[in-house]
Write a structure and sequence with these properties.
Largest sheet: 12 strands, antiparallel, barrel
Radius of gyration: 16 Å
Strand order of the largest sheet: 1-2-3-4-5-6-7-8-9-10-11-12
Order of helices and strands: EEEEEEEEEEEEH
Structural class: mainly beta
Amino acid sequence: MTKVYPNAVIPQSATMTAPTRGPLVLTIWKKSLLFNCHGFTVYDSNGNLVYRVDNYAAGTKAEIILMDATGRSLLTLRRKRLSLVDNWTVYDGETAANPKFTVTKHVNLLNTKSIAHVSITGSKTKKPIYEIEGSYTQRCCVVYDEKRRHVAEINRKEAVGGVKFGGDVFRLVVQPEIDPTVAMALVIILDQMFQ
C-alpha cells in the first residue's frame, strides 16, 4: 500500500527551500495529525513532515496558522471581514502587523480561467504578483507570477500502480521561483475559498 504518513519530524531548514535544479514536490493530505481536528499535513518526497495546519473548529475559519513540522508558526492567514469578495491577508508568524500579501477570489465573469490573485498589501498599484488559474475543487491549478512563469502547480496524486487517491490527497509542485511556504499558504486559502 502506498504510504501517506511521515517518517519522522526533521529540521525545517532541510526542507523549507526548493531545490536549486528542479521543483520541490510536496504531498498534501487534507487531514490533521491531531485527533478531532481539521487541517493539512504536508510531506516532502522522502515522506518527511514539512508543514501542518491544525484547526479545532469545523467549517470556515477567520484565522488559520501554517506551522512547520515542529509546530512553530510560519504564517497566519486571516479572512477580511465585511468584504464583498473573499479576501485573505497573510502575516509572518502570529503577528497582526505588517501583512505580507493579500489573496482575493476572482469574480470577473469575463475571465473564467483565473480563480484568485495575490497582491502585495499596501501597494499603490494593485497589479497581482501571482495569478491562480484552474479548478481547485478538481485539484488542477497553476500559479503564475507577474511574468506569466509557471511557479507552482496543484494536481491529483497518483500511486505508483496508477491508482488515484481521493481528493483529500494531492500534490503541490513548487518551482524555485516561489517560496514553498507561500505556495502552501495559497493552497490553504484556496481550500477555504472553494470548500
